[in-house]
Amino acid sequence: MDKVKILLADDDEDVLGIYKFRLENDGFSVSTAPDGTTAIVEATRLDPDVLVLDYRMPPGEEGGLSALTQLRRQGFYKPIIMVTGSDDQRVAIQSFREGVKDNSFFDFLHKPVDLDVLVLKIKLAYLHANAAARGVRIVDEMVTLYTALSDLRKNSQINPGADSGLASRVDGILRRFATVVSKDEKGE
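User: That's the sequence. What structure does it adopt?
Assistant: Structure tokens below.
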């Protein structure tokens, strides 16, 4: 499996350096952006698995929120973790309103960030996003199975003795479904 790709966006170079050092030591592939505008460009270019945004960074007072809003408008629904030094609850409320779209993962951390908590939140965000992807594969297999069973049912109603290969098609689908479920349970 490839390394989990993280994009960190913060205007404080020291914070970026500390986060990057820790996350790379934990096995993540880390890229950085010094502001919201660069974060949008890099998120589009790199397609990170998880994005960590500082709320207060250029451009403007709410560069992280602006970047979050623009990314969601562009269809970027990867997990995002917003970080802020502000104690203002309105910051968290605004961020959640913009961040949680289409069942995408969103979380919020206050500075100073406990790096152990950041690592755990990133892992949780990544697992959440991948569980959703595995769920789509399972749903696709279930739809295919349902369609095949419907075809089999219709065929047997027209000619109860006819098989036309549908039974073997259903068996193949059931085997694929069992494989997908088995891989999902193993976390593959």
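The mean pLDDT is 76.
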